[in-house]
Amino acid sequence: MATAQIPAQQVNGSRGTTSRSRRSKTGTGGLLLGAVALILGLWLKSHFGLTNSLCNTGLGAFGQAVSSTAAHDCTVAGAAVAFGTLLVWVGALVCVVGALGLIATVTGTLNSASATARRGSASQSPAASHGSSTASGSTAPARDRPAASSTASTPGPA
Predict the structure, then answer these.
(1) Has residue 146 been placed in a domain?
(2) For 144, which DSSP code?
(3) Range of the domain at 66
């Protein structure tokens, strides 16, 4: 008789951890992809920028009119600079979104850790979580009851 194998995620109940690590990887991937796009865009702009600026002068316009090769090179340089500008903007945007994703993941991890710590401390004091009976007969949790006076009460005038 063969026994069925249960995946480790179902046994350990670690679905939230998997989701959190997936978000962390997504934020890191976005940050890295944005940085690569940003660097590639800056490289394109620096490599083709001088050619494009020369093509936009009067001498460049004359060269484009005389030579079809110069006209083609100027078109390629202009397109490369425009694409480089697009890559810079998209790369910067993706970097910001990736960084925000990482921040949200870290903040979510910290919030879940503090919530777990709060639940742990609440389970250690059952009187606070379940309420306890006092001399006055109140079963309200300690946080909801008024604080008892530390001074002894003196009898009032008769």
Answers:
(1) no
(2) T
(3) 24-114
Q: Alpha helices, DSSP H only, in the chain?
A: 8-12, 15-55, 58-66, 68-124, 126-130
Residue type at position 3 = T
Residue 150 is assigned to a structural domain of this protein:
no
Greatest pairwise CA separation for the chain in angstroms? 119
pTM listed for this prediction: 0.55
Indicate the number of domains in the chain. Answer: 1
* 60 within domain boundaries: yes
Contact indicator for 74, 48 with CB cutoff of 8 Å:
no
Provide the residue-wise pLDDT of the chain in tens; the chain has 158 residues: 566 665 555 544 555 555 555 556 777 888 899 999 999 999 999 999 999 999 999 999 999 999 999 999 999 999 999 999 999 999 999 999 988 888 888 777 767 767 777 776 666 655 554 554 455 555 555 555 566 555 555 665 65
Q: Does residue 10 fall inside a structural domain? A: no
